[in-house]
């Protein structure tokens, strides 16, 4: 039974958290089910929302990186 843990910056999905999670869950479940040849109901997906001030990339806070772009 595959268990997929998706960590995502909370602010990235803030415009529609439930809708985005639903879409990602459906896509991940379908892809893994097809690739591994297992029933979709055996794929578990969990989201962990991380604040942008608590996520770093290359030593910089994601919050600041997002503000730069």
Automatic annotation (TrEMBL):
Oxidoreductase recorded as keyword: no
GO molecular function, one term: isomerase activity
Pfam families: Tautomerase
4-oxalocrotonate tautomerase-like domain residues: 2-63
Spans traversing the lipid bilayer: none
Keywords in alphabetical order: Isomerase
Name of the molecule in the record: 4-oxalocrotonate tautomerase family enzyme
Organism (species): Shimia isoporae
């Amino acid at each position: 039974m595959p268990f997929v843990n998706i960590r995502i910056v909370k602010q990235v999905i803030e415009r529609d958290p439930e809708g985005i999670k639903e879409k990602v869950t459906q896509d991940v479940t379908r892809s893994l089910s097809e690739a591994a040849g297992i029933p979709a109901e055996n794929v578990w997906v969990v989201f962990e929302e991380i604040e942008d001030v608590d996520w770093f990339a290359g030593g910089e806070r994601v919050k600041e990186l997002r503000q730069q772009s």
